[in-house]
Every structure is written in C-alpha cells, then in structure tokens.
Amino acid sequence: MPSHVIGFLVSFVISFFLNSYFTFRVKPTLAKFLKFPLSQVVNFTVSSLFIFIFTDYFGISSTITPIFAVFVALPATFIVTGKILKKESVSA
C-alpha cells in the first residue's frame, strides 16, 4: 500500500507539471496545483458512471467496458484540466 500511494502521488505531481508545461503551456502555480485534483474527480466520475451504465444496463462485459470508458473520460478530463490550468489569476 505505501508503494501504491507513493506511486500515485509521484505520478500526480508529474502529470501536473507535464500538463502545465507541455500540454497547456502555462506557468504552474500553487493555486492551480491545489485545483488540479478536480480533473481526477471528473475522470473517476465519468469513467465509473460509464462502466456502471454499460455493464449493468446494457450487459456489456466488465472486462472491455473500462477500455471504452477511457475514450469518454479522457476528453472530459482534458477539458476540465484545461479550464483549471488556463484560468488566469485575478490580481488585486
């Protein structure tokens, strides 16, 4: 379990910086870093809902449904991540 948690946290931090610098080409800030977990909440929610609906209501195999869920969750996560990282800070 400790390895799992450490691996998750390291990959999360790396994902934040790679998305900031390369995907959206914005300066990483602490405020953006603190909001970044929302993108993972969207990813988890959309993919879980997709898997639930397609396995329970449509009877599609739970073995292949997660593969299709990626194609739905990825664009949603990309949009939310972009909104989080591209949002400009308001200076007072």
Helical stretch tally = 4
Question: Overall mean pLDDT score?
Answer: 91
What is the helix fraction of residues, given as a range?
Answer: over 70%
Query: Which parts are unreliable, with pLDDT below 50 for 5 consecutive residues or more?
Result: none
- Strand proportion, as a percent range, falls in under 5%
Any idea how many domains? 1
Distance between the termini: 44 Å
Tell the overall outline: globular
**Secondary-structure element string:** HHHH
Per DSSP E runs of 2 or more residues, the count of β-strands stands at: 0
What class do helices, strands and sheet pairing give? mainly alpha
Radius of gyration: 16 Å
The biggest sheet amounts to: none
Membrane topology: Multi-pass membrane protein
Family: Belongs to the GtrA family.
Subcellular location: Membrane
Pfam families: GtrA_DPMS_TM (PF04138)
Give structural notes:
By secondary structure, this protein is an all-alpha fold. It has one domain (2-86). It contains 4 helices and no strands. The chain has helices spanning 2-23, 30-35, 37-57, 65-86. The mean pLDDT is 91. InterPro entries: GtrA_CellWall_Glycosyl (IPR051401), GtrA_DPMS_TM (IPR007267).
